[in-house]
Amino acid sequence: MDCPNPSRLLLAGLVAAAPLAALAQAPPADTKEVPLSKVERKNRVPVSKDVLRVKLPRPVEASLRNGLGVLVMEDHRFPAVNVQLLIQEAGPIHEPAGQPGLASVTAQMLREGTPSRTSRQLAEELARLGATLFASASFGSDAATVNASGMSDNLEEWFAVLADVLVNPSFPGDELAKLKQRLKVQLQQQRSTPFFLLNERFSRAVFGTHPAAVVAATPESLDALAPEALARWHRERYVPQDAILAIAGDVRAAELMPRLEKWLEGWRRTELSPVFPPNPQPVSGRKVLIVDRPGSVQTTLALGNIAIERRDPDYVAVVVMNRVVGGGPAARLFLNLREEKGYTYGVYSNFLALKYPGPWRAGGDMRTEVTEGAMTEFLKEIGRIRDEKVPDTELEEAKRSLVASFALSLEQPTQLLGYAITRKVYGFPEDYWDTYPIRIMAVTADDVQRVARRYVDPESLQIVAVGDGGKIRAVMEKYGPVEVYDTEGRLVAADH
Amino acid sequence: MRFPKSLAPAAVFALATPHLLPAETGRDRPDLRVPIQKVKLGNGLRVLLSEDHSAPTYSIAVTYNVGSRDERPGRTGFAHLFEHMMFQGSANVGKGEHFILIQNYGGSMNGTLEMGLYLEADRMRSLAVNQANLDNQRHAVQEERRLGIDNQPYGKTFEAILDTAYDNFAYKHAPIGSMEDLNAASVQDVADFFRIYYAPNNAVLTLVGDFDPADALARIRKHFEPIPSQPAPPVPDTTEPAQKSERRRTLEDAFAQTPRIDIVHKIPPGNTPDWYAVNVMSQILASGDSSRLYQKLVKEKEVAVSVFGGAQARRGPSLASIVVMPRPGKDFAEVERLVYEELQRVKAEPVADWELTKVRRQERRATAQQLPSTLFRAIEIGTSAVYYDDPELINSYDDKIEAVTKDDIQRVARTYLNDVNRAVVITVPKPKAAPAAAPSH
Q1: Which of A45, B154, B234, B404 has the fewest CB atoms within 10 Å around its CB?
Q2: Residues A220 and A285 occupy one common structural domain
Q3: ipTM field
Q4: Which of the listed residues A238, A263, A288 is the one where a domain comes to its end?
């Protein structure tokens, strides 16, 4: 996730201690009674209305001879070092059609052997050094990532392991066979959670033929992966010229750069330049997709469609619009569906903006009996953000909360580095994050309404409901033509 | 993790907030020691201040000495219910206003400390406990239960483990409580619980970060000192009768698609020498892909797809757990036998040097990675103060890990990893009644 999504960051802090629990206002279950109490502003608590100004510490930036971009954020408070390596050409977005899993399995296999270290030796050496090292390539991403961390006093030793797995993986066949067995069981396990089933169906619906429609490998695609294919993917795609190596912690940038040249000298530049698939377009026509999960006691809902990419000039306005609608416990969806109606434990909206346009979506888990009530309120809130200007006070508070939680996130060096990576990946100006709060505060009610009308269209919503099909189908049919899938992802019924 | 949140029998309310420009960080040598100034107010409230100007943020945590172990039969879920009730308003704060204020005004200068203290003091003094709020929050908790337990694979496994392993009610029931008990709670029950446990003399206020200690203490006195203390709450009895034999239970799960084996052993309370030895041993056995059980069960024998485990820290009898996700079709008894073979090996032979080094270094790295967060420090300090009366534990924890020897590990393995100390819960997918009929049109 590249967007700062400040409300989520603030929540992360709160959840650790005093969760969302907080605000629920459930009236007695399953009735239409007027709520017993509402949110109340007594306005007696002393607050300061100063607006925060920030100037972020800047990382040292450099390029190695092989083209690798390096960012170093020094922080000597604690003797640890965090490393994030983004390999921009090696993500599943670039996989050939029909080979889901090629990118993610290649990444996972990095740790399973090199000419000088077996899988077990790698695991034990990293453990002995007190270091962590994970490689992954998430579905929907254009990049593979390698994340590592360890103490600063033995950085050279654990970085050598990182460099070895990055440059010299050997993809041993026996280890690949074992990994496939584990992954196949995981494919089976993830079908037991509403969360996976929702994402699978929603991504298919909004991304259509774009590669981000795929959220998992299949047993068949895993079976077809051979060590040679992984080695080839690695050889062609794990290239330094567009990669970004970001290091935060107890290191000296000036001393580190020449050492990085040496440690990574085996990593050679190539001529590869990225070719992206055509951007996904918003789907037209409202559709309802039910995933029948018999015995479910809740309906897990998502409603949305393709919105914007990260570089879009509307990005900041969409951040504010999303915060007003569903970005946290002080947002409309939460106050309405949880506070007022008591339908749910939590209800939010969010959006994904990467190098290609991703979806804005709203959703949450509602007990089965109130599925219809929840749908009514989702559509009401979507209508409201389009039809009415956000009142001044509400807009002001929403923007203020975004700035506040952005500032709080600056406490973490890894987060500062994350912002620097985003700036580099998208080619934003040097002061992009310094001016971020100012740009948030400059968003107007007209801006919010404009982007809501442009990107949140009730007539083309893709609506996914994971729940007990027998209990919710009649309700969901009111919102559009229905397709029903089973938990294996198979279409089992459809309106004609 | 030192205090698994799902278990922590203490209630923590905290906020973190920034309030200045980020400072340049460039101090020369790390001093990992967290300074802690301790003050006790006239009403018994313990105040812990940890000044740190390296980032422009601070966190407040108010840790109350209350948890699900204080609940009685028929009234489970109270301690957790209060996590919700604490946002229902108080004399000068409207229902839900707490969240709105923190969200919207947490990021400005000076005023935020005053706001944070005001919010915490107001609810400690005058929480709104009434029928309407209680009814509302009951529903919120019931939705939380559906979301986290009733609608998820392995959702009920945790409750089954506690119920099987423990005899004493204090730890035998899960913090979320039962639907029935939540429905049975009266306003009087809840008001009594609040008066007894949410009193200043039963709480610790921890402030960590960028503030002036003299100024902060003056504000804390102004807001909190007038709140009257209450008679000391009863101390719960968490002692367990001696277990006579291994306990087993099999649980059918309607959502799980593959089985899961949970093996737990009763161990001593957290922050005791034996607990640290068990913790180190658990990491050698089951933490990460270098661990003995991972290498044996997942890589070598391929009878499982994953293995994890660890030692929970409670103030009373705790549990060391090993969780195995077997490959479908594998014989559970064989999987268990392989686990016990590894337990036997820890008893019979000293662990390797590199394994001790692994745990020591990983603990120090984890500490160094978590410490930048003022909220982490505030919660850690407050919890250690309430649990063990040892707020300085944040500064000595890694040393206590370091002090564990090979002999200690063999000794605790022999003492605690026995069948008479063991409970095993096997979760299996519930057989499907019949092929699901395609929904009709």
Answers
A1: B234
A2: no
A3: 0.86
A4: A263
